[in-house]
């Protein structure tokens, strides 16, 4: 007669129970610790908002569309380092002209085709691996059948 218990008896050993308790204790500590740290991070975020660029905290107008950084801008504009492209914006409240890093369509198209090429290359590589593995398994199966026939 079989037991109706869905929990295997091996899971009820003291060592396994202690490991489960330790695991779930660490998980709950991580969750509650993150919640406590989240409150501290909220106060830090408020103080950082004062130091944030004007385009993050107020409305802005794009004065010059997204364009590649030239040699001088690479050295003088910190926004060029992120993507290599910047746009000039005008913050409406503070009336400041500043640079904001942006992503150009040319760069996005280049990244898209690079991704597509990588995926195509990986497809070809894995297709070759699958065909080679299938041939190897077929060869092993035919060798096994041949050995069985020879042993008769």
TrEMBL record:
It holds the Pfam family JTB. It is a single-pass type I membrane protein. Keywords: Cell cycle, Cell division, Cytoplasm, Cytoskeleton, Membrane, Mitochondrion, Mitosis, Signal, Transmembrane, Transmembrane helix. It comes from the Eukaryota. The chain crosses the membrane at residues 16-37, 111-132. GO terms for cellular component: centrosome; membrane; midbody; mitochondrion; spindle. Coiled coil: none annotated. InterPro entries: JTB. It is found in: Cytoplasm, Cytoskeleton, Microtubule organizing center, Centrosome; Cytoplasm, Cytoskeleton, Spindle; Membrane; Mitochondrion. One of its GO terms (biological process) is mitotic cytokinesis. PANTHER family: JTB PROTEIN-RELATED, PROTEIN JTB. Interacts with AURKA, AURKB, BIRC5 and INCENP. May be a component of the CPC at least composed of BIRC5/survivin, CDCA8/borealin, INCENP and AURKB/Aurora-B. Belongs to the JTB family. Required for normal cytokinesis during mitosis. Plays a role in the regulation of cell proliferation. May be a component of the chromosomal passenger complex (CPC), a complex that acts as a key regulator of mitosis. The CPC complex has essential functions at the centromere in ensuring correct chromosome alignment and segregation and is required for chromatin-induced microtubule stabilization and spindle assembly. Increases AURKB activity. Inhibits apoptosis induced by TGFB1. Overexpression induces swelling of mitochondria and reduces mitochondrial membrane potential. This is Protein JTB.
């Amino acid at each position: 007669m079989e037991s109706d218990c869905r929990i295997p008896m091996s899971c009820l050993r003291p060592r396994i129970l202690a490991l489960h308790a330790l695991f779930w204790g660490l998980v709950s500590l991580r969750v509650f610790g993150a919640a406590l740290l989240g409150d501290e991070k909220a106060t830090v975020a408020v103080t950082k908002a004062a130091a944030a660029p004007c385009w993050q905290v107020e409305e802005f107008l794009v004065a010059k569309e997204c364009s590649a950084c030239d040699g001088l801008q690479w050295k003088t504009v910190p926004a060029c380092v992120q993507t290599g492209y910047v746009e000039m914006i005008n913050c409406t409240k503070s009336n400041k002209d500043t640079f904001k890093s942006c992503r150009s369509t040319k760069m996005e198209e280049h990244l898209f085709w690079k991704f597509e090429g990588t995926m195509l290359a990986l497809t070809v590589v894995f297709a070759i691996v699958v065909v080679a593995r299938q041939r190897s398994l077929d060869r092993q199966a035919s060798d096994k059948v041949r050995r069985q026939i020879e042993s008769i």
